[in-house]
Design brief:
Blueprint: E1 3-8, H1 16-23, E2 29-32, E3 41-45, E4 48-52, E5 65-68, E6 73-74, H2 76-88, E7 96-99, E8 103-104, H3 107-120, H4 132-141, H5 153-174, H6 182-196, E9 200-201, H7 203-212, E10 217-220, H8 245-249, E11 258-266, E12 269-271, E13 280-281, H9 286-294, E14 307-309, E15 311-312, H10 313-323, E16 327-331, E17 341-350, E18 353-355, H11 362-366, E19 369-376, H12 393-406, E20 409-414, E21 422-424
Parallel strand pairs: 1-10, 1-11, 2-5, 2-10, 5-7, 6-8, 7-9, 11-16, 15-17, 16-20
Antiparallel strand pairs: 3-4, 12-14, 13-14, 17-18, 17-19, 20-21
Helix pairs in contact: 3-4
Bound molecules: inosinic acid.
Length: 428
Amino acid sequence: MPATVLVGTQWGDEGKGKVTDLVSGDFDCVCRYQGGANAGHTVVANGHKLALHQIPSGVMYPGALSVIGNGCIVDPSVMLEELDTLQGQGITCEGLRVSGNAHIVMPYHKDLDGAHEKHLGKNLIGTTKRGVGPCYMDKMNRTGLRVQDMLDEKIFRQKLEAALAYTNPILEKVYELPTYTVEQICETFLPYAERIKPYIVESSKLLNELLAERKNILFEGAQATMLDIDHGTYPFVTSSNCTAGGAVTGSGVGPTNIQRVLGVAKAYLTRVGSGPFPTELSEEDGVGKFLLEKGHEYGVTTGRKRRCGWYDAVVVNYAARVNGLTDLAITKLDVLGGLDTIKICTAYECDGVEYTTVPEHQSVFYHAKPKFIEVPGWKEDISGCRNFYDLPREAKDYIDLIEQLSGVRVSLIAVGPDREQTINRHWD
Ligand code: IMP
């Protein structure tokens, strides 16, 4: 099992961190391939809960390498702050590696992110304001600075000068924001560079060497399928390829190395930020409130309340297609316990037409009305179940239905936040 990709199948926050934690023991290396400090995962270090955004959760596993791949963007201030916190808890982070080709999030990227959201008014995307969109814009525009540029002060200054010549007029004239000087940024970034240098590697070379030694790599996706820049609900998406294909371009490993694609889906659905969400329940709705509270659906990065809704089989089925899923992990099944009945969306209706897959046209998706089937719920607390056959019949039927509707086997089921609160059906 040399390479496995782990990917979110919905709009993020599916509990990928818990699933990574569960399966990572089988891997010699965990590599993130896209995104930046917009991701958020909670890890427990020496009994303390820590929220990580930039550093992959792989640093928690002694002996494993934890790689920030070339497809990621790196905010040095966040990375170093997290490094200090982890090291303060006795986590050495000696397995941490950063690709020299990853792009750097600069202070002006964060300014531009916030200003652009303001400019969009009621049409705002609801970004995490971590500078993600503007940083990837500079990457594509070829005006970005990369982690490797920090290795040489002269180059860093030259590239920064060129970047500011382009960015300062935008800050000033478009958004009426303060501009930056090279000196100002160098003052904070050159000391950052000194601290980051020891972690910089040629990550594609490193990952391929590991594969040649028959080592196992887990490619950990951040955000999720429906937030993918190409396959998600554009423009209400993040600015990178979260889907499994991103693991290839975002790491420099060939697609033929990937043997498994594990999709993570919550047993219901949540979304933060704006954009269409056909199965959304209002907060006034009793079930919407129930899911928000029982599922503790508040963002790790921004603390925002997540929008909650019923499980959407059309979305997960679409995720199975665009990622080539081989397995599914269903999380938070325990949260549904106590409901009389549970709904699953199996199709949408728009202008009298039925859609059984996510419609490509955004206005169709926007106006899509969910078609539900309703199945019996269960009252038992399932958080102590460790075997599929221990689950109440209704919970087993719910999982079987998810499997049937997605065409993908459900290999792992999470019934609580702790590592042990898991049912392993097929994962080996
Ligand atoms: P950005 O990635 O900060 O540009 O935000 C773009 C969209 O992706 C917004 O709707 C965010 O709420 C969403 N988003 C970004 N990161 C995450 C995440 O880790 N979980 C869930 N949604 C996210």
